[in-house]
Amino acid sequence: MRTNPMVKPQTSSGWAVTLTVISCVCLATAIRLLLAQPAPALVGWVLVAAAVVLAAIATAIWFVKIRRAKAWITNAVQQWEHLSAVKSKLRVSTEITILDIHSTDPLGAWATIRWNKFGHIQRAWVEALPDEIWRGSVLLISPDPAQIHVHGPWPETYYLMATDYHTFASVAAIPYFTNRRFQAPISTN
């Protein structure tokens, strides 16, 4: 099963934390043995070697996880920048969030959506889209005027056609998109 790309990867893991703690315990025990008597010095050096190897493995795990998280943040912010650019060019658009996907087939998927502007939650049929959509995706769409009426009742089921879909971004990336530290520098052309 693939992991959801809309969710930020964790920067810590049980293995990394466990190896770090074991490495520290080995190093503390080794220092204590080396400072004690010359007889257990060999055991102390073995523990130092084990501590160094475990620390190296833990460091590699931490490095990979932090790198994946940074790459996810960069990609997610770029998705939001693209969504904002597309939204500014469209005349009528709105954002919906995919809260849950109930079932899929080649023609589309049954999902639960939230209209971000109104906070309304409803069931929807999402026609097969050109992009792979997951839980936690924010979709930029043009609402169908035949289904959604101003001040009218909400339809029981909204049918999202692929032609009304424009782009997507991750809802988990909103804090990074709104934080200036993660935004790309503005280029002057």
Which strand order does the major sheet show?
5-3-2-1-4-6
Largest sheet: 6 strands, mixed
Poorly predicted parts: none
Number of helices: 3
Separation, N- and C-terminal Cα atoms = 44 Å
Helix-strand string: HHEEEEEEH
Q: DSSP strand (E) fraction?
A: 15-25%
Structure explained in plain terms:
The chain is of the alpha+beta class. It has helices spanning 14-36, 41-89, 174-178; strands at 94-105, 108-115, 120-127, 137-141, 157-160, 165-170. The protein has a 6-stranded mixed β-sheet, with helices on one face. Strand 1 (94-105) and strand 2 form a beta hairpin. The longest helix is centred in the middle third of the chain and has 49 residues, at 41-89. The protein is elongated. The protein starts with 13 loop residues before the first helix and ends in an 11-residue tail after the last helix. The mean pLDDT is 85.
Outline the secondary-structure elements.
Layout: H1 14-36, H2 41-89, E1 94-105, E2 108-115, E3 120-127, E4 137-141, E5 157-160, E6 165-170, H3 174-178
Parallel strand pairs: 3-5
Antiparallel strand pairs: 1-2, 1-4, 2-3, 4-6
